[in-house]
Design brief:
alpha/beta, 7-stranded mixed sheet, single chain, 4-stranded mixed sheet
């Protein structure tokens, strides 16, 4: 882990210099062939939970790639707890005229409240809720802040995000189960859920099975699940099961 972080920072610093047109306009055409992007179409709605600014500038933002694929007629809703990452994504999208991205500055959780959140200014992709730090992980570079949290159901309702959702993506560094607990009505109108791999991945799989989602494939960040009642819908790409 100590070696990985400096390497990631170097990678991010180098790719920050790559023009937007290459990172995202060209990059999204390539990603459109892989999971989960291959299931997205123009006009779709995508909900992304977690969008760190270092990933954004390095050309690895799922929000930005999704926006390129769903196009101006689609919607990409981002729930992000870190104020600095929210500001970065809003500014970046505005600067490059990507109007289909909506950023909501709130953390996703099992209920409404306030929680302590740990942010790492040098590596925001490692941000996490204070109660979800793996054993042995150093937190010297992190700063603690208080954030507002709520269920995904209520956040989307409050912001009038209705209709069917093609993909919900969850990247919260360990609190994925708590986020899924707040996807009641949202899950019932969602076709795909992607969850980043974390130290609770087996429990996440069990939870999604209870929610009637089954594993579809490994995607670019974790594991992709699909609602079981849609598994035989024609016209979609076949995918190998995760094992």
């Amino acid at each position: 882990m100590r070696l990985k972080r400096p390497l990631v920072r170097i990678y991010n610093a180098v790719f920050r210099l790559v023009p937007f047109s290459i990172k995202y306009r060209v990059g999204s055409r390539l990603r459109a062939r892989i999971h989960p992007y291959r299931y997205l179409s123009a006009g779709d709605t995508v909900v992304l939970i977690g969008s760190a600014r270092d990933v954004l500038f390095a050309g690895r933002s799922r929000a930005m790639h999704s926006a390129m694929i769903v196009g101006p007629s689609g919607r990409v809703i981002v729930l992000e707890a870190d104020p600095a990452s929210c500001a970065a994504l809003r500014g970046y999208a505005q600067r490059h005229r990507v109007g289909q991205i909506t950023v909501i500055g709130k953390g996703a959780w099992r209920a409404s409240g306030r929680l302590r959140f740990l942010t790492n200014p040098q590596h925001p992709a490692a941000n996490r809720l204070a109660g979800f730090v793996p054993a042995g992980m150093a937190t010297d570079d992190f700063q603690g802040i208080e954030i507002d949290v709520d269920t995904v159901d209520d956040i989307l309702c409050d912001n009038q995000i209705d209709g069917s959702i093609r993909l919900v993506s969850v990247t919260t560094n360990g609190s994925e189960l708590e986020v899924l607990a707040g996807l009641g009505t949202t899950a019932r109108r969602t076709e795909f859920i992607s969850v980043a791999r974390a130290y609770r991945t087996p429990e996440v799989g069990e939870k999604l099975l209870q929610m009637s989602f089954s594993q579809v494939a490994i995607d670019d960040r974790g594991i992709l699940y699909r609602r079981q009642d849609l598994a035989s819908t024609p016209g979609l790409y076949p995918s190998p099961p995760f094992d």
